[in-house]
Amino acid sequence: MNYFYSIFILVIASIIIYPCTLFADKIQVICKDSETCTLKYPDGRIYVGGWKNGLRTGKGKLTYPDGKTVEGDYVNDKLNGHGKATYPSGDIYEGEFKDNQSHGMGTLKLKDGSTYTGEWKNSKFDGQGTFTYPSGKKYEGDFKNGKLDGQGVLTYETGTRYEGEFSNDLPNGKGVYYYKDGSSIEALWKDGRVIKELNALISESSKKQQAPFPADKIIGKSINEVLDNTDTKQK
Question: What pLDDT, in 10s, does the model give residues 37-52?
């Protein structure tokens, strides 16, 4: 009788110390209360936070073996609502999540100094947003499936800019590019290159320099060549 009683006491003790001993070969769970649980996964991940009915629930933080961390509001075992993801590279995302993916409004700060602030869908830029490059160049406008797509404005650090249609990260369709002196050219673009000049507005300063915009000087030029190369106007 004493033997079976001793076994019973050991089993009860193991349950108290390791609440999920029956699942120890999969996930180790240790809880102080419903809001402070520690889960250790076989792949090395560690979760600290709310735990209810076998699911991550409430505030929590998940740490990966490579150092990545994801913290925020968990609903039914997935991150839903406001959260923050920090990557080993130094990149940081903070904003809205849906089912563990960046979804809604959020900001991504990259290690190289680039930033994106705007709408997300399934962890990709999608909707209205602003992407700022380390050089100071900035795009404001439409994104789709992680790329520049739709209407937008691309402003260079030199002060020149392109306003118009984009697709697949490049000017595609009708757009106008502006120089610092106020001159502008409206043109048709394909895959980032001018295919047809539509209209030109010459500033007074450019007229004095006798710097028209001959079509043969811009046809086939890329966005960088047109916006950054002042020789285009002077030859």
Answer: 999 999 999 999 999 8
**Do 195 and 188 meet the contact criterion of CB atoms below 8 Å apart?**
yes
Q: 21 in helix, strand or coil?
A: helix
Instruction: For 152, list phi and psi in degrees, rounded to 5.
Output: -165, 170
Largest Cα–Cα distance in the chain?
A: 110
Per-residue b or e along 121-152, where b marks 16 or more CB atoms closer than 10 Å to that residue's CB: bebebbebbbbbbeeebbbbbbbbeebbbeeb
| Phi (first) and psi of residue 44, to 5 degrees | 100, -10
Please tell me whether residue 23 adopts helix, strand or coil conformation: helix
Query: Does residue 188 contact residue 198 with C-beta atoms inside 8 Å?
Result: yes
Q: pTM for the whole thing?
A: 0.76
Structural domain boundaries in the chain: 1-88, 135-235
